[in-house]
Amino acid sequence: xxxxxxxxxxxxxxxxxxxxxxxxxxxxxxxxxxxxxxxxxxxxxxxxxxxxxxxxxxxxxxxxxxxxxxxxxxxxxxxxxxxxxxxxxxxxxxxxxxxxxxxxxxxxxxxxxxxxxxxxxxxxxxxxxxxxxxxxxxxxxxxxxxxxxxxxxxxxxxxxxxxxxxxxxxxxxxxxxxxxxxxxxxxxxxxxxxxxxxxxxxx
Length: 203
Prior knowledge:
By secondary structure, this protein is of the alpha/beta class. 42% of the residues lie in helices and 17% in strands. Strands 3-2-1-4-5-6 form a 6-stranded parallel sheet, sandwiched between helices. β5, α7 and β6 form a beta-alpha-beta unit.
């Protein structure tokens, strides 16, 4: 029996939507992962100034969204931690808990161009393989160049997940809610009900 392969799907999930779930499923299939661990961020230091729902509410929306998929699981590690959420610290924690597991960190292709501003980047590359969703219309040559640059400079292991373009984001969903528009089919039904119940993202 080989090592357990776990994909880590981090994010603000403000709110979680169908695009996040599709990306997780695609990554699982493409790289033969055993499990996808969803990891809502507590206090995302990169997103200060954005209207962010309470961290426990974002955790609950994520739980509702993934409840019907046996391969998806949830970690509250970043939500429980005080202060900013840093990927390197979370990975270190997971490494200690599961030293035998092989970890894959799932990101959008655009993150590959921003990664060098991340805290302790070397340890992130040491502790996991990065899986980048190729989906945001970035010129492929730019992307390949950036992947080979990161590989050479940091010894990074980077794989690519082919993704159809999802033409909306969490920002678009929040905008629709403010305007009183439907978000049906953009988020799982249980998430839409939760947002409505607690009047999240409304003026």
